[in-house]
Amino acid sequence: MCAIRFCAITVKRINKFSRCLSSAPNVMLQNGFRAALVQCLVGKDRLKNLENASNLIHKAKSNGAQLVALPECFNSPYGTKFFDEYAESIPDGPTSKMLSEAAKKHSIYIIGGTFPEREDNKLYNTCTVWNPNGDMIAKFRKMHLFDIDIPGGITFKESDILCSGRDLVTFEMYGVTVGLGICYDLRFEELAKLYRIKGCKLLVYPGAFNMTTGPLHWELLQRSRALDNQLYVFAISPARGEHGYIAWGHSQVTDPWGKVVAQAKHGEEIIYSDLDFTECDKVRAQIPIFTQRRTDIYDTICKI
C-alpha cells in the first residue's frame, strides 16, 4: 500500500510530516505550485512498473499535484546488467508513451525520473520532462557516471555500459526555471552553481543512493545544494526493495534555507509540498552571497 505525506511549506513553522495541506487540492498557488514526489517500488516487469507509476501519478493528481516527479530507474531494476535489456528510444518507446499520456490525461507536468535510453547504439541514463499537453519539453542525460573501485570493497562502473551526457538542461513551468540532474550529479556543486547562474529556483535529482552512502550523504548533499544556491531541491528515490540493488529511499524536499520540509520513509510513498518561490527571493535578499561572490578571483563557468 502506498503511503501519502503532505507538507505545506512556510519559513517560520514547518510540520515535516503533516497529513493535511492548508489549501484545497485544486487551488492554484499564488507564488508557486504543488509538487508530488513519487517513491515507487520497482521490479523486473517493465509493464507492471509502468502501470504502477501511472497509478501513482493519478493518485498524486487527485491530491492536487501540478508537478509529479518519479525516481531514477523507475521502469527497471537499477544496475549495469539491466541497462541494455531495458533501454528504449525516446520519445517513441513504451515508457515515453506512458509519461506523455499521463501528463496529457491529468493536465500536469511530469518529471519522468530516469530510464535507460538507446540512441545510435549508445546507452544513457536519461530524465525526460513532459508538459500538460503531453509534449516532451526537456531531456537530460546523466552527466557524472557512478564509477567506484574500493579495494576489498565494492566495484561499480556505470561507464562500462553507459555514456555520459554533456548538456545542462532547464525548463520553465509557471514562470519558474527548473534544472535537472541525476543521482551522482548531486555531488557536484559546480553543476548546481551553473544552474543557479541560469536563474533556477528548483533543482530536481532523481537518484538511487545505496544503503552505505544513503544514510551518510543523501540528506546532507541536498541541504548543501539548496543552501549554497538558495533554491529548492528535490531528490526522488525508488522505494527500498529486498533483492538486487537496495535503494536508501527517503525522497526529500529541501527549501532555500536548507531545511528539510518533506521526507519519505523507505517504502512506496508519495510526499507533497506546496512550493512558494518567494522564499528564494527572501533568502537571497537577506543573505546575498550570490552577488557577493568574488568573481574577480574565482568563478564557475560552463565550457560548452
Q: What does this 3D model show about the protein?
A:
This protein is α/β, with parallel strands linked by helices. It is 24% helix and 25% strand. It is built from 6 helices and 16 strands. Strand 12, helix 5 and strand 13 form a beta-alpha-beta unit. Helix 1 runs parallel beside helix 3. About 4% of the residues have low confidence.
What is the topological layout?
Layout: E1 3-5, E2 32-39, H1 46-62, E3 67-69, H2 80-86, H3 94-106, E4 109-111, E5 115-119, E6 122-130, E7 136-141, E8 147-149, E9 155-157, E10 170-173, E11 176-180, H4 189-197, E12 202-206, H5 213-229, E13 232-236, E14 252-254, E15 260-263, E16 269-276, H6 278-286
Parallel strand pairs: 1-16, 2-3, 3-4, 11-12, 12-13
Antiparallel strand pairs: 2-16, 4-6, 5-6, 6-7, 8-9, 10-11, 13-14, 14-15
